[in-house]
Amino acid sequence: MDKKVLRNLSYGVYVVTSIIGDKKVGCIANSAMQVTSNNPTIAVSINHDNYTNKVIKETKKFGLSILKEDSDSKIIGEFGFKSSKDTDKFENVGYEEIDGIPVISDSCGKMICKVIDMMETETHTVFLGEVIEADGYTNDNPMTYKYYHEKLKGTSPKNAPTYEEEKEVKLENNTNKKKWKCRICGYVYEGESVPEDFICPICGQPHTEFYLVED
Ligand code: FE
If you measure from the C-alpha of residue 114 to the centroid of ligand 1, how many angstroms do you get, rounded to a whole number? Predict the structure, then answer.
C-alpha cells in the first residue's frame, strides 16, 4: 500500500476543546469534516491517548476552533505537543467561552457540538457532533495541514491520524546550511548552530531540544 496517496486528502488544523468541572482541555485535530448540513453535523477523530477524548466521552460536548494560516503557531505547540492532563493549555492562549466551552480566539470560526454518536477505531474515536452553536466567522484562509507542513515546517503531533513515524529524516537539500530539527514538533532550523536564545516557533522548546540532521 502506498500511504503517500492518503496525503492528498485535505486536512485542516483544528483545536478540539472541552471542559469538565473547571478543568479546560483541548488538543489538535486535523481530521474534521461536515457530514450533514441540516442539522449541521460534523465528524472529528481524536486519539484514545488524548485526555480530551476521555473528557468528551464524559461530557458529550466539545468545541471546534478552526485555525487560520496566520493563527499564532504557539497554539499548535500548546495544544498539539503537551497533555491536558498535567498542563493548563489555555494559560498562554487567548480563549473565550461559548455555551460554557472554551474556544480559541485566534481562529477563523468556532463551533460547539453535542455528541450524538461515536465510533471506535483501533487508535481513534470518531465523534459525531451536532453543531449547536457557531460563531466568530472571518474570511481569513483556514490553515490546511499542507500549509502547516510546508510553510510552517511543522509535523504531525504523535496522536494525529496523519502521524507517521519518521525513522529517517530526509530533507530537501537545497542549501548548504546545516539543518537542526526540533525533537518535539519537527520544526527545522537552518544555520551553523541553533542560537542559545532560539525558541521553537511551533512548540516553544529551547535550543537544547534541536538535533543535527545528517544529510
Ligand atoms: Fe518545536
Answer: 33
